[in-house]
Amino acid sequence: MPDLLLEFFSEEIPARMQARAADDLKKMVTDRLVAAGLVYEGAKAFATPRRLALTVQGVPARQPDLKEERKGPKVGAPDKAIEGFLRAAGLTSIDQAQVQADKKGDFYVAITEKAGRDTLAVLAELIPDVVRAFPWPKSMRWGAASSQPGALSWVRPLHSIVATFGPETEEPVTVPFEIAGIAGGDVTRGHRFLAPGEIKVKRFDDYVQKLAMAKVVLDAERRMDMIRSEAKTLAFAQGFELIEDEGLLAEVAGLVEWPVPLMGSFDQSFLSIPGEVIRSTIRANQKCFVLRDPQTAKLTNKFILVANIEATDGGKAIIAGNERVIRARLSDAKFFYETDLKTRLEDRLPKFEHIVFHEKLGSQAERIARIVSLAGQLAPLVGADAVKAERAAQLCKADLLTEVVGEFPDLQGLMGRYYAEAQGEDEAVAHACEDHYSPKGPTDLVPADSVSIAVALADKIDTLVGFWAIDEKPTGSKDPYALRRAALGVIRIIVENEVRLPLRSRLWRHFGAVERDETITAAIAVLHPLHDQIVNISATDLELAMKLEVLVSESERKVVSPKLVQAHSYLHQTRDLLSFFADRLKVQLREQGARHDLVDAVFALGDQDDLLMVVRRVEALAAFLATDDGKNLLAGVKRASNILRIEEKKDGRSYVGAPDIGLLKEPEEHALATAVATAKTDAYVAVAQEDFAAAMTAMAKLRPFVDAFFDKVTVNADDKAVRANRLTLLNEIRDATRAVADFSKIEG
Amino acid sequence: MADGTLSAASQPQRNNLDPTRSFQGLILALQQYWADYGCVILQPYDMEVGAGTFHPATTLRALGPKPWNAAYVQPSRRPKDGRYGENPNRLQHYYQFQVILKPSPPNLQQLYLDSLKVIGVDSALHDIRFVEDDWESPTLGAWGLGWECWCDGMEVSQFTYFQQVAGVECAPVAGELTYGLERLAMYVQGVDRVYDLNFNGRDDDKKVSYGDVFLQAEKEYSKHNFEVADTAMLFEQFRMAEQACQKYLAAGYNDDKSKHTMTLPAYDQCIKASHVFNLLDARGVISVTERQSYILRVRELAKACGAAWLATEGGGAQ
After folding, report:
1. Both A46 and A165 in a single domain?
2. What is the ipTM of this complex?
3. Is the peptide bond prior to A409 cis by the omega test (within 30 degrees of 0)?
4. Chain B residues touching A313 at Cβ < 8 A
5. Same domain assignment for residues A129 and A150
């Protein structure tokens, strides 16, 4: 069967768009072929800086014939209806229609045989359609034709199109179409400089071959392989090692049609600049690779550039030119670095007073002050030295004002560490300058040193509380301040370092700090111990104020009374933020394979603000439910819960408290009551000691008693008192298990 | 180039005009080349501008249906880029060579490459690349697609197909080439410090360097731009230029607004406002939030001038 070869030859296509464009081309053409009834055998697309190409193999030469039936009016219908039907069906006389019968009687049917068209004709329409509809991220008009309405647009000026179609055994034909003055043809060009002449091509295999002769490597993967292997060889020959960089490799492969890696060097003295700065300079500005010495793992004074030509002097001039540019760039970088070293980090801080962090959240200096204070408070909770944590928090943003970070924002944090080290800061402080940004993503490592942990938590909590306070929460896909990432960071730091942090009180108090109003902070401190009494108060401001004032002692009231309502409102914000943490944790646990119902069962206990304990509970629960005892107990507990739910609803009351021993009739009842009392005590004791496995073991002992109870005892006894007592007993089972989770939320 | 790897221009006129050893020779070679192509060779616009694009021969002539091919040197002022003459490549005043071809010819890339050959950059020896760079000028309300042109890893030119200028769709599209003359000259002369460029192509005591011509100016203007420029006066000048531009635009329209007869003087005031804004920005007296609003104000002027230009004869109005 025939093959299709397509090539769009244009001016230089941006490297970052090439791979996607190749995929789009393949999809657009093959989708349209299939829609036209042309099922093909295989297709592959390619991109270079100057061309987008596609080969489709095994395309039928003709579309299959189509038989179409069109149902018309009833026999004997008015003339108007008949005429309309003939027109629509393309018939000249009603004799050409057939008569068929259904339940309602005879009616006309027009049967038209639609002969399949030649694929060539289909392609002649399809290709211009693809060109017009091509989804370039940005496209442009050009030349004299650009003044016409509906002028062609492409990523850069399009010069020619190769479109040949035919079987392997015959001379293929060009697809007859023309778009904006460009006709489907069989002529392309080689490399811009090395073989600029015209090339006549037939089909894919000779196209690839002729391009290769004309110094064009069509396949980006191959260009990448060539660069990788040649760069490694060049490095190896000098006893060095290439620092691989797949992102850069892909970009460079999109900048050349004929890759020629060459090695250059720069002055040894530049190696006094941190390696990351050299690499960023050379990578971002010059798109060159850097090398290291395999012995020391340190950067060497060599780089590898990838030229697009085989120069007549073997590349000498190209290397010399690149070396000059890199020398100038590194001179700048060195100057920046050395300038930065002249100013101590703390001396940069006053500038932050004039830099707005966020219109509603004050200056960077204010934000840093909050982080310092919070890091100091968190330090003892994570086993860090508070003085070091505060020092680190003080300095950790200062590198944002350095020249190097101004030039290479990606190096923020890292440069802070270098500068902190250079000015003789404590090692933990220096590392926190870098690590407080971590984790930067779901796979990034979390900080492990206690000082870094304190600062990282303080930084993220301040961000979250701040944006919550000004109501800039993430919605749907919008999360401009990366608050989801910040929350996930807090979660991972806490869980992976096993940090115990009662988040609620921490968050609530920090709302006061963000408010920049000390009386709010004081009011929050006053309300803090009253949390359980006030958390569910929701009333109009006036009533709320009155209720709160009753709870607050007179001496404290004088200070904080007007701010109590506001402080209380932050409690609601805190709960909202905590539920945001809960959602992130659920996502995180689910992604790690935990059952979402177990996560829900733990959160259903309410106010879970110790994330580490939530995770521990989920783990214990999962382990327990994997055992037979666990499964059976779960069944029993669910049964108890169901009965309770129904009966409590029926009776309009709940059954709580200890069962009355005197009302227990059956031996199984007695046995269960004793077992539940023991299990409950043991479970709560174990939970208090945070030994969730032991809590589960205690509950596992309930299983035979629960089973026996349901076997022998009727809950809904005729005697009302006995019935109530039995329901109370069931509630005790539910209550015992609530030491760990709400079993009713567990599936199965 | 110092190591002799660059071939000299096709037929160097005289040694002291060899573009690989003379800054002015390089300019003359480019002018010669584009004059041969058929461009009108203009002189620099007689106002302070931030880039060659601001010259009305580009901004305004890029609009409307009439063909237009021009080339010129434009001194460009970037007050913020001054370094008191201490940085080897940063200048607050430098030269751009600007080519504008409307409509963009189909062989524009080749024309550009041939122009490089004329100034001594041979594509058989040097790695010339077109690297994505989408151009946008927020103050001019203009954007286009094109590239930075690299020679052995150094950006030497900007290549843009204008899509929109002064808020108006370009129809037809113009191609714009901007050569960074100092950079190119440093490259072909093999010089690392801009002030060491040979300006006149002579040797010994007859040699005049770029530093001889401009170093003092760089020092003086850096001090002026960063430390002394009278900000109260500049704020006032901005306001006056803005008002004058609006006034001249209004005065230039006929009754049914189908014709405009005073676009160029109005556009001068837009240029002035833009430069005054750049000075204020360099003085650091414009906050981040204000900055945006100043840019928008200049853009409004530019857009109004673009619209007015279309109602002039040069803009194609009948």
Report:
1. yes
2. 0.92
3. no
4. 5, 125
5. yes
